[in-house]
Specification:
By secondary structure, the protein is α+β, with helices and mostly antiparallel strands. About 35% of the residues lie in helices and about 25% in strands. It has helices at about 10-20, 35-40, 75-80, 80-85, 90-95, 100-105, 110-115, 120-130, 140-145, 215-220, 225-230, 245-264, and strands at about 5, 25-30, 45-50, 60, 65-70, 130-135, 140, 145-150, 150, 160-165, 170-175, 185-195, 195-200, 210. The chain starts with a strand and ends with a helix. The relative contact order is 0.12.
């Protein structure tokens, strides 16, 4: 691991200022995404700006038609929050299945969304529920936020402050996890909400999280597992690793979509 400057500001504005001044500065919250990359030598930021001392980013609030989750909320907080469990149970179930207990108690929703790992769970929830990602300066629709593997619409000095999830009429989540890492080999969230019927897939594609328009159209006509049973996705862009090949991942997308609809 290379040397770096460590900063722990007390406000979002101070964090943004430090990011602008740092040489290749990076934000760190729980550290579950960035620190492993640094240990492996895949990332070497000159400055780390910790959000750990920034207050006001770790709450979950009921905003009526939306649930607002602060960027510093851990996965365990999201999973245990009564507001989430009552109003968006699929989101609570998803958070409850992330990684292991250590990851769930350290990793944050803001860090996961900003990192945009192609096998992370939250990007699928954001897309399927039509979430809005709020930052220190603007609001970004999930459809415009995730731009590809490890790539988002965030500017280098931009900090996520919250994620707002519209409350759906119904939603379900299903994941086929890697037995070791618990990352998604294929994970699907299907939702029927204010943004219409949406189906989002994570873990399967080398391009990162994506929606399946054909499944959405089928479910819009009849929201039941049989509607997606005959819908397949192309294996062409699917990932291939020790856990699964492209064809198997493509097959898993349909299987997980059926299960997600059943859960909904």
């Amino acid at each position: 691991m290379e040397d770096f400057q460590y900063h722990a500001p007390g406000s979002v504005d101070a964090a943004v200022s430090l990011l602008r001044d740092a040489e290749d500065g990076k934000v760190v919250a729980g550290g579950m995404s960035l620190l492993p990359l640094m240990k492996l030598g895949l990332a070497a930021p000159g400055g780390l700006v910790s959000l750990g001392k920034v207050s006001g980013l770790d709450g979950i609030a009921d905003r009526g038609s939306e649930i607002e989750v602060g960027a510093l909320c851990t996965h365990a907080q999201v999973a245990a929050a009564e507001i989430v469990r009552e109003r968006i149970p699929a989101l609570a179930a998803m958070a409850e299945g992330i990684g292991d207990a250590q990851v769930r108690n350290r990793g944050t929703i803001g860090g996961s969304v900003a990192h945009n790992d192609p096998a992370a769970d939250y990007p699928a929830a954001c897309l399927a529920l039509g979430a809005t990602i709020a930052t220190d300066r603007r609001e970004i629709a999930a459809d415009d936020f995730f731009l590809g593997m490890f790539f988002t619409a965030l500017e280098e000095d931009e900090v996520i402050t919250a994620v707002r999830f519209p409350v759906p009429t119904r939603a379900g989540w299903a994941k086929f996890p890697n037995p070791a890492s618990k990352y998604a080999v294929a994970g699907v969230m299907a939702a029927d909400g204010p943004a219409g019927v949406r189906v989002a897939v994570t873990g399967a594609s080398g391009d990162g999280v994506f929606r399946v328009a054909e499944m959405e159209a089928a479910l819009a006509s009849s929201f039941e597992p049989a509607s997606v049973a005959g819908v397949s996705v192309s294996a062409e862009a699917m990932l291939s690793d020790d856990a699964a090949g492209p064809e198997y991942r493509a097959h898993l997308v349909t299987v997980m979509a059926k299960r997600a609809v059943e859960e909904a």
